[in-house]
Amino acid sequence: MRIVLIGAGNLATSLSFALMHSHHEILQIYSRTIESADTLATKLIDKYGGNISTTADIASVVSDADIYIISIKDSALHDVALQLKDGREDSLFVHTAGSMHIDTLESRRRAVLYPMQTFSRSRVVDFSDIPCFVEASSADDLELVESLARSMSNNVIRLTSEDRKWLHIAAVFCCNFANHCSALAAEVLESHNIPFTVMLPLIDETTRKLHSMSPADAQTGPAVRWDENVIGRHLDILSDDANKQEIYKLMSESIREMHNS
Amino acid sequence: MRIVLIGAGNLATSLSFALMHSHHEILQIYSRTIESADTLATKLIDKYGGNISTTADIASVVSDADIYIISIKDSALHDVALQLKDGREDSLFVHTAGSMHIDTLESRRRAVLYPMQTFSRSRVVDFSDIPCFVEASSADDLELVESLARSMSNNVIRLTSEDRKWLHIAAVFCCNFANHCSALAAEVLESHNIPFTVMLPLIDETTRKLHSMSPADAQTGPAVRWDENVIGRHLDILSDDANKQEIYKLMSESIREMHNS
Predict the structure, then answer these.
(1) Closest by alpha carbon to B234, among A180, A74, A70?
(2) Which of B159, B177, B233 sits opposite A181 (nearest CB)?
(3) Each residue's pLDDT tens digit, A86-127
(4) Which of A6, A127, A183, B71 lies at a C-alpha separation of 20 to 30 Å from B10?
(5) CB-based contact, B117 to chain A, within 8 Å
(6) pLDDT, position B247
(7) How far from A176 is each of A120, A163, B7, B30, CA to CA, in Å?
(8) E strand spans, chain B
(9) Residues of chain B with pLDDT under 50
(10) What is the pTM of this model?
(11) What is the three-class DSSP state of A101?
(12) Residue A136, H or E segment
């Protein structure tokens, strides 16, 4: 499949490697800044060979690709898709955003391929394990986007925009918010000269448990025991840090509520 | 070393297996309920042989052990240690609680051995990877408790009660609260018939990243990009669930604040 990639951010980077790895052809990469497009194109050509043109001018995006994969920030998705759709009525437009409705694209042929993973530009993730959630505006395009996803991932799931909305919220909780819990812990440790690395065996086991127990069953700590002594002491200790104290209180009460019900 | 174990809960269970595995002798297990003590003793004898007596009567705890390891809930620690100390002035008392001061023990010879891990009774964890934080009331006993810890773990660190207090708060954030983020996600998914297992690759990668990046650098998602469209939509979607909505808001603002500073 001849693909144009719109975007060169964290997700676009991992996705483009997976596409080339699965022998798809990337004709062109568009990014708002030509440097980002060039950097990504160079990395891909170094690894997989071929030719990839780059542009930062939306009017210069080629018109003859089979698929336009738009992988940019959610707030720009609608506008960029609108600017591209005229003259490309026969091409399939695909977006990769967890929280955006398929109809945001407004093109005749629309699809979603949402690879649910945390992408940092410096890490190229193995795509084959990533759950990819797909949806399309027609049965034929659903098969097409599904086969595109299957060429990269062993874990492809059909999901409507309505259900994907909830999936994305769940992902924010168990990835973004869980990671922020570690970031808050790192701040606490740093201010007492304890290296964050001492936490890794604990964090690893917390994650490993979820492969064999539900998170509710895996819950440990003072809040689930409702050990008011420990909770009270922790809240006291955090009295100079209103933000951490408030998060501590809210999370502890939420744990208690879940386990009482 | 001849050891008496006071407690038969999650931590005591994992610890007792590690002690026997390292050829220490457990003379006796005390628990408030004789069933818990018996269950644990039977499991240990089945695996390692030997004799272990059990009791639910604090007055029947033997007096001739080298070490009394008290691994019970924090709120009971002081009282139980007080009841045991008379007549055992030559024995070393050790507690295993992350958040409790060493002097809670009040015995002449006091020490702490805090294995920082999340213990669920159904999982026996490999102790060799667990960071163990040790402290004692004398230099000799520090060496003793350190060598006891080293016989079980490759990761033994000296830490004062004052610093351990902060360490324990950090552990609550990156284990208990991070796990609760997954539990909240599981609730969201369950109410839309999406299996929680689809989250595991995302959770695994979130954890793996922390082995090579700081949690602040690893942060992704709408809050760190401060994508108000997505955040606003998520808050709307959660409007029927005040608790999740409040946690979403607080965590997102905290992520933003950390990345602005």
Answers:
(1) A74
(2) B177
(3) 999 999 999 999 989 999 999 999 999 999 998 877 777 789
(4) A183
(5) yes
(6) 98
(7) 12, 19, 37, 43
(8) 2-6, 25-30, 53-55, 67-70, 92-95, 109-115, 132-136, 156-158
(9) none
(10) 0.88
(11) coil
(12) strand A132-136
State the average pLDDT over residues A55-84: 96
Q: How far off is chain B from A223, nearest CA to CA, in Å?
A: 8
Euclidean distance between CA atoms B12 and B7, whole angstroms: 6
Give the model's pLDDT for residue B229: 87
**How far apart, in whole angstroms, are the C-alpha atoms of residue A177 and residue B46?**
43
Q: How far is CA B100 from CA B11, B13, B95, B163, in A?
A: 15, 20, 8, 11
**Are the beta carbons of A74 and B227 separated by less than 8 Å?**
yes
Q: Which two tokens stand for residue B146?
A: 């350190």
Q: Is the dihedral of CA B42, B43, B48, B52 positive or negative?
A: negative
ipTM above 0.85, yes or no: yes
Structure token digits, residue A48: 């997989």
Interface residue of A182, A187, A229, A260 to substitute, partner B, most B CBs within 10 Å = A182
Q: Dump pLDDT digits (tens) for B217-240.
A: 999 999 998 989 899 999 999 999
Closest-CA residue to B229 (of A30, A97, A105, A178): A97
